Amino acid sequence: MFAKAFRVKSNTAIKGSDRRKLRADVTAAFPTLGTDQVTELVPAKEELTIVKLYAHRGDAVTVYVSGGNPILFELEKNLYPTVYTLWSYPDLLPTFTTWPLVLEKLAGGADLMLPGLVVPPAGLPQVQKGDLCAVALVGNRAPVAVGVAAMSTSEMLTSGLKGRGLCVLHTYQDHLWRSGDKSSPPSMAPPLAVDPPDPSEEEASGQADCALPSGLSPPTLQGVEEEVRGRRQLCGEQTLSEAAEDPGVGGPNPDPADCKTLQEQMDELLQQCFLHALKSRVRKADLPLLTSTFLGSHVLSCCPEGRQLDIKKSSYKKLSKFLQHMQQEQILQVKELSKGVESIVAVDWKHPRKGSLLEGSEVRTLIIDYAKKNDLVDAENNNLVTLDPVLSDSILEKSEQHTVAKLPWDSLLTRCLERLQPAYQVTFPGREPVVRRGRICPIDIALAQRASNKKVTLVRNLEAYGLDPWAVAATLQQHCQASTTVTPAPGARDGLQVQIQGNQVHHLGRLLLEEYRLPRKYIQGLEKAPRPGKKK
User: Fold this and answer.
1) Which of 4, 129, 221, 239 lies most in the core, judged by the most C-beta atoms within 10 Å?
2) What are phi and psi of 500, to 5 degrees?
């Protein structure tokens, strides 16, 4: 509802009678709040304002603001808490849990779909259709969204967790949140997850991280797995099918320099065999698949020759604990289809596993070092490389698995680079670098004709470089002494473009190149600046 900017109709201080009515409405809407908590939320003397606004779709909304933050909003006579309020009262609403990566979609106006839910061992919260609910992220129970249940809990389970789960009304990072102090969610420990506490398993039940969708470290693999596959999460992301195959890793001759504990090595081996089994042995038609069958017939058979997989020697101790972590990482979904018997019911075959960025030259160095370290260079022809199981599974098509045994260096390197996900990184002063998949679009400057044959300058794609279109428009208005507007960019979802009256390419170029210091190669359209001596 607040994914886009809203229009404020009025902003007035609340009257005493309205304050008392609001307090009564809060008590009725949220009976779990005690009298003291209601008084704390709606104070008797502190300043409280009523903001009446229209959302971008035309909905009339009343927002109550206290201490500079929106605390409640009213829509069609229904009262809803904002995320600022829920951070003070996290248990006010039944809370569903999802993944950090989903938050961006919710803040963009999407509803929460059931496949994105994380089902805790205690089960989903019990709600009825139309009930007010909150959404939290894995690893932190501080709510980040407010919505209404699209179906009851029983209907969610009956549907196999498919379809729309919550109609989202308000989220952290939307425009209603931006109208407050823009504080971030506090860190709140999630309720106890998984099985009874076990000191040896506490580490394994890690919390989610915004950069990596689970508390697990990405598999630290030896040789090319460590440098190319584990980090080959590289140019942005690595899919499950690219990351899964590790049959030769950690073979009978481990690196003597490896000082990992037995438990850490077993954790790595378990994850490697697990991913290898999902890629090479499990098919969509096999689902649902008993977890016991998955372990006995698939995972154990993927263990490299000379090594023995023993889950009891890992930090997880039990297969169920490990699969719960894989479910938290959103790689697969496990359900108890019959009492006491769990099955794998879904697998995300293209699950993203984020990692480090590598340039093409670094990838080439890693591949060459791996081939030399493992004696894969052909003794008779130094231009050929023998493909071991790791390289075969990484770069060969299925039809080539049993026919291609060697490749020339140039073909090997080309195939490795083609398998990687292109990405770009934007670094802002004083902020963490932002990494996005794909190729970055340049800032596009164009000229257009408007009414009465007047020229205007249009610029788009500013957001990709961390530039606020509204701030750029305000700066240009001062520099150019011309009117500016910000409008939706045609053909770009949620993208904005700045329009400046007249041909202002020269001023715009100077702003981008000199003040913002953007490389010229990322700006197209600078040649459209008026030539000296000619009218704009």
Assistant:
1) 221
2) -120, 135
